[in-house]
Amino acid sequence: MLNHVKANSYIVGAFNITNLNFIGHLINAAGEEKSPIILQTSEANFKYLNLEEIVPVIINASKKSTPICLHLDHSENLKIVIKAIRSEFTSVMFNGSKYPLDKNII
Q1: Distance (Å) of CA 73 to CA 57, 64, 98
Q2: pLDDT for position 103
Q3: Residues 6 or more apart from 84 whose CB is under 8 A from it?
Q4: Helix (H) or strand (E) holding 69
């Protein structure tokens, strides 16, 4: 997705998602605009959003629409990062800022 974006000089919106209903609206708008989209969430949203439920919804929608990237943003919990990867998130960001530098940089 990002290679195409760079080669064709346009931007992709990244939107924080908190519930399944919001996801549908974002996907519909991306489809209408024929634009890829990045949907991102964080650990804080898992109080309202079930990680295992959103992935199938987004994968199914991306088959019918434009490309969709699902991103886990700033996770401080390695178990959640692994769970997101196994659930087919497109990308993850682990936030190791609370660790000393030698533990943070791998």
Answers
A1: 19, 25, 16
A2: 81
A3: 51, 72, 75, 92
A4: strand 68-75
Instruction: Give the residue numbers annotated as catalytic, written as ranges.
Output: 73
Domain that holds residue 26: 2-104
3-state DSSP assignment of residue 62: helix
- Residue 26's nearest CA partner among 38, 44, 8 is 38
CATH number at residue 6: 3.20.20.70
Q: How wide is the angle at C-alpha 27 spanned by C-alphas 26 and 29, nearest 5°?
A: 65
Question: How many independent structural domains does the chain possess?
Answer: 1
Q: What would the two tokens of residue 68 be? A: 């969709």
Question: Could you tell me the two tokens for 95?
Answer: 């936030």
For 31-84, the pLDDT digits (tens) are 898 889 999 999 888 888 888 888 888 878 777 778 899 999 999 999 999 999
DSSP H helices in 34-77: 51-64
pTM of the predicted model, to two decimals?
A: 0.85
